[in-house]
């Protein structure tokens, strides 16, 4: 590409960046005027910009004040986002009790994510007395409100029999709803049910499909599970190369089993060239993630060198 074309491209790109920054700056100024004039929606939108650092310098303190104004003005999504700040301790001192009150206000105001977050607090006993029955009702409300994670969390309760009678059939339906709603963890857990024949007829083909969807959605453990299917030839043609790629993705995503399995492949030379140094690297990663077998494999290989 001629240098003049490169310069022209760079100039156009910088011009575009500048115009975007100016647009955000004008937007922030306009929202500030709206907020000062008593428009609670304007306060919320400006608070969201400060919370995320979009068009303005990130400032949790300002975001907190703006979400408070929005919440007091009847914008319940402002109550929700302020509750999240109190849970995380962003711009405020962590305070589960205040978060609980804000999520309650959000949930009662039709913000389904507020119901989900409040349900999590009741499951964990954070800022409230642990109460699986209340959590179940809140997850149901969140699920009915279109929050896929709420469906998933309720499914987990049916699997464990927490606050409800254990029911794999209901759990399966809820994980399906979560998966269809784009929640990768729901797809992954549903894949486990089909793989291990828990509440459903064993079906490796469905398990493979669900693990793939979950892996593509960022659920690292599903990548590992799918890799194991390729190792064993379950519902797929045995393929060590694909298994290696999936274990790599799992490991990169923070799954210790994926790291350890990669180490085993390098020790054995399966799907990869035998390489003890790489094996040590992956066993070490697994060990750093508190994977006991990974630590044992690292120690054994290190001593045997």
3D structure, described in words:
By secondary structure, the protein is mostly helical. It has a domain at 35-110: Alpha Horseshoe (Serine Threonine Protein Phosphatase 5, Tetratricopeptide repeat), CATH 1.25.40.10. Helix content is 75%, strand content 0%. It contains 16 helices and no strands. The chain has helices at 3-36, 40-52, 60-72, 76-88, 96-108, 112-124, 132-144, 148-160, 168-180, 184-196, 204-216, 220-232, 240-252, 256-268, 276-288, 292-304. Helix 2 runs antiparallel to helix 3 (60-72). It is globular, with a radius of gyration of 25 Å.
Instruction: Please describe the biggest sheet, giving its number of strands, its sense, and whether it closes into a barrel.
Output: none
Q: List segments where confidence is low: pLDDT < 50 over at least 5 consecutive residues.
A: 16-25
Structural Rg: 25 Å
Number of strands: 0
Structural class: mainly alpha
CATH class of the domain at 35-110: Mainly Alpha
Query: Number of helical segments?
Result: 16
Give the SSE string: HHHHHHHHHHHHHHHH
Beta-strand content bin? under 5%
How much is the average pLDDT? Answer: 91
Helix content: over 70%
Give the oligomer, counting copies of the same chain as homo and different chains as hetero: single chain
